[in-house]
Fold this protein.
Amino acid sequence: RSFAQSLLRFLGFVFWGTAAAQVFGGVWIILMFKNYRYLFQESYLSLPGWLALATALILLPTGVLAVSLSVKCSRNQQGTLMYLLLLLLCLEMSSAALARSYCVRTASQLESAMGYLVHQHNWTCSQDPGNSSVDVLQRKLQCCGVHNYTDWLKASSSWYHPACVPESCCKEKHSHCRGDLGHVELLSEEGCLKKLEDQLCFSMLYIFWCCIVLSILELLAGVSNGILMRHQPFHELHIL
């Protein structure tokens, strides 16, 4: 019983810390899909982020109950803690499943959306920096094209092959770059698809592993709470 109380107290403090980790992951995913909303048609893709925020909100009273039960056992608090742990377990399993599946299924959607932006973008070999969605994307991620700069050559018509790419393909440290194909070393080497996929999958995997670790900790908390409940049998049945 003393071990269960000590473990429950420790897990209560851990729940407060993991609530901050869940808030960070949830806000990260929500902001990512908001910033790149022109690439994603479905609005529900940010659902794992909102589930993470809901989980963090419930983790706070769960931590308070776990700490208080380690000091003074109350049948009402023990029952409430069990309900909260069950609710958290459902939320985290849902969030983990969604995060894992979205990481896989958004890859093809991203490639088609970026390809469409590249083919629809009109640019000229001038000093106009451009402020279209694809220009903003390339500057933010320091990338060029879908896979590399050659995507801009394929996007042009068959009889016209420009001698440059949009200036947003230039590396930040080269302020004199104008997208000239004669100086390829001044252009970003990596494509935007891989960079955005890496960011998206990393954030989703962050949520996934947070949920898996939290689920294990909650099972431990449930077992500890069950041990304490076993040592405090019911004396009155009206509470049922």
